[in-house]
Amino acid sequence: MIDDIKNWKESSAFDRDTRNEVNNMNEEELYSAFQSDLKFGTAGLRGILGAGTNRMNIYTVARAAIAICQWVIDSDSVDPTAIIGYDIRHMSKEFAYLTAKIMDAFNIRYLITEDPISTPELAFLTRDIDAECGIMVTASHNPREYNGYKVYKKGGSQILDDDANYIENIMKEISFEDIYDYISKEDIFEVNLNPELDRYINENLSSSLLDLNEKKDLNIVYTPFNGCGLNPVTRLFDLAGYKYQIPKKHGRFDPDFTTIPYPNPEVAQTFEIPIELAKEIDADIIIATDPDADRMNIAVKDDNIYRVFNGNEVGALLTYWICLRRKEKGLNPGVIVKTIVTDDFGKTIAESFGYKVVETLTGFKHISRIATQLENSDDEFVMGYEESIGYEISDIVRDKDGIIASLYIADLAQYFKNRGKSLIDLLDDLYDKYGYFSSNNFSITFEGASATEQMNNIMNKLRNDVDVFSEFKILNKVDYLNSKDEYMRTNAIVFNFIDAKLAIRPSGTEPKIKIYIYANGNDKIKTDDLTNKIGDKTRWIMKNID
């Protein structure tokens, strides 16, 4: 680390602004910026913008782009094409252009979009034009200080561990001083991909399960959270015949997310401005997509307030909608995929309709792997989802897609509004039929130089202490780190109790441990009480492990 810091302070390989930034860092900032190389995982790169080996900057991005080019060449593809997209964040366009120049230096044909686009659109384009790889510059729902670099393989799904490890190993062999040898001096040529994006919109529209003769009087507030959902979602709503209003403060691109405390619609506080508008116009529903539009969440009018849903509830509602309408249209049951940290509400609904439910690890790279496997089988992939407000519906996009999910949730709300019910009413009906499902999900963040060590100590304690949750009558404990299935092997532990489940895993992108607690029962008070007690015990354990 010391050598890296000295190099970034003094070497002419780094521009003057970068050298000055490093020279002005205090000891804590230097440690944070240089404690390691920014890890290239299955979601690519993601980190805070700034100078340093552990930051998103032109040097770390260039090294990743060079490695990706080598990965593409090593695939032995004939005349490979790469598609490059970028969102509205700081440095997104610059990172995309840098990637294009490196592609050009490797004589790899690239297509780069004229304007910012959403992540689902980039995933669609990768598959639609049969590109060898797709690169999306985005940090999704992370705070404004972040940016990221997501990589798709041929077929339009995110790369898996084998490809990510291959790329990362190449990166380790590339010095920052050598990156200029791989940057073309040719001008960048943007490409108008509107015809391809038209196909994306039309395929989404044609996939709708709502009958054309259904009345369209749903009163919608839609917010793109100042991001890339603005154009595709509103275009889809216009074509579908929905009326909507957008909060003025959210209806423009803003890389600083000035009016949003955290650009993630999982967080209830992010709905404050849309709720103000919803109250003014007496909206039935608020639909929100995150800045790159791969996630979607809702708030629904409940008497005089707007209740923000969670991903398990929205996933269950979408599951019910899809199963119900497919049955009404005479379509056979297919396969629905959920993750190990998603509750069993949607699973219970799907199985009641005769659907097969497959569980996989967290992340849509895993859900999409199942979807791809089913392409040549007798089983039809219908939907995949996870609790973090991500939904993959049909086979249009091999990733989570908040745009198509926005249409499906609007169709669902309209269908039941026409029958005198809100989504609150529908949710209560489903609880009456399938039992009440309670959740208590939270994260514990670790700070400082020992964050990783603290997280490892906690996971090891949970892994090795057989009595740690004995008061809750453990049925079994599943340690996915020891799974015999390579696709299910990860640093996660699941405790199955009577009427409850606890899943614990470290975040793949931030220094935090994520906790997921679920319970199911006929008594709401007792079910909520059980999840709260397990949560209190979990917090105590996290606090008291050395």
Secondary structure blueprint with pairings:
Layout: H1 2-10, H2 16-23, H3 27-34, E1 45-48, H4 58-74, E2 81-86, H5 92-105, E3 109-113, H6 119-128, E4 133-137, E5 146-153, H7 161-172, E6 190-191, H8 194-206, E7 219-223, H9 230-240, E8 243-245, H10 272-281, E9 285-289, E10 296-302, E11 305-308, H11 311-328, E12 335-339, H12 345-352, E13 356-360, H13 364-373, E14 381-386, E15 390-393, H14 402-417, H15 423-434, E16 436-439, E17 442-445, H16 451-464, E18 474-479, E19 493-497, E20 500-506, E21 512-521, H17 524-544
Parallel strand pairs: 2-3, 2-4, 3-6, 7-8, 7-9, 12-13, 12-14
Antiparallel strand pairs: 1-5, 4-5, 9-10, 10-11, 14-15, 16-21, 17-21, 18-19, 19-20, 20-21
Helix pairs in contact: 1-2, 4-5, 4-7, 8-9, 9-14, 11-12, 11-14
If you had to describe this structure to a student in words, what would you say it looks like?
By secondary structure, the protein is of the alpha/beta class. It has helices at 2-10, 16-23, 27-34, 58-74, 92-105, 119-128, 161-172, 194-206, 230-240, 272-281, 311-328, 345-352, 364-373, 402-417, 423-434, 451-464, 524-544; strands at residues 45-48, 81-86, 109-113, 133-137, 146-153, 190-191, 219-223, 243-245, 285-289, 296-302, 305-308, 335-339, 356-360, 381-386, 390-393, 436-439, 442-445, 474-479, 493-497, 500-506, 512-521. The strands form 4 sheets. Strands 1-5-4-2-3-6 form a 6-stranded mixed β-sheet, sandwiched between helices. Strands 16, 17, 18, 19, 20 and 21 form a 6-stranded antiparallel β-sheet that branches. The protein has 17 helices and 21 strands. A hairpin with a 6-residue loop joins strand 9 (285-289) and strand 10 (296-302). 39% of the residues lie in helices and 20% in strands.
